[in-house]
Design a protein that fits this description.
Mean pLDDT: 94
Largest sheet: 8 strands, mixed
Distance between the termini: 49 Å
Length: 278
Amino acid sequence: MEPWLIVGAGRLGLQLARVLYQHHVSFFGVVCHSLESRTNAAQVLPQRLLLESHRPLPPATRVILAVRDAQIAEVGMALAPRLPSGAIILHCSGAFGPSVLDSLAGAGFATGVFHPLLPFPHPIEPVVDFRGAVVTLAGHPTAVAAGHELAEATGMVPVHAPTLSWPLYHAAATLAAPLVHALLQAAQEELRRAGFPAEHISLALRKLAATVVEQATGGHGWNLLTGPLVRNDYGTIHAHENVLQPEVKAVYQALTAFVSARLRGEVFPQQNPETEDL
């Protein structure tokens, strides 16, 4: 495998760099854009793998852009004159498809997307386990092939998705990760308020949520859903609404309305082709 170069030592970039190093994947290093990112990188990588953006870069033909979404195109264009002709350049954003790098593609680079479906809360801790995670690939066939190879080398599952609606894909991932995280934080707060023993809250919710994930993603659709709505127990629902914190109550009511509509088989207006503007 040709050596990789990671540009950006932030939450995703440094976690990925550490995985490449630990898996002995051929790797030039990670380009650090700030003192903070370099300090973080020095905690998990040897000094020889810490590169500075203002210094000459190694002759990398495979590059990962692990920078903020708004910086992808700009950083890519700034790097282009410093990279070999025809180099592979992959970005890690799930919000944009390959088109954000169209200017580089037009200049002869093989561009694409390498988006791990994982949360990255911090560059160092907790350590993100990439094994078994799906990484979404799209773009030029050469870029996709390189991303596929990288995914397998690090224990990820490559999925080629050339026709994605990227905003919708990213919205779905947000529903499944940060918003679920927020709901579980709210559940912990409400258990504390209810008087549940604090030392057992994490254990209780971890098993409960893990079981729900297994059931919800097992291919049974809405059939395994449980709770008072399934039983038409509106008395219990109203009792819940009377004791929840106001901001949590608002979320509870919105989710209850959504689930209720789904259980009734309702089609929302924006999903009905007969009512869409043509």
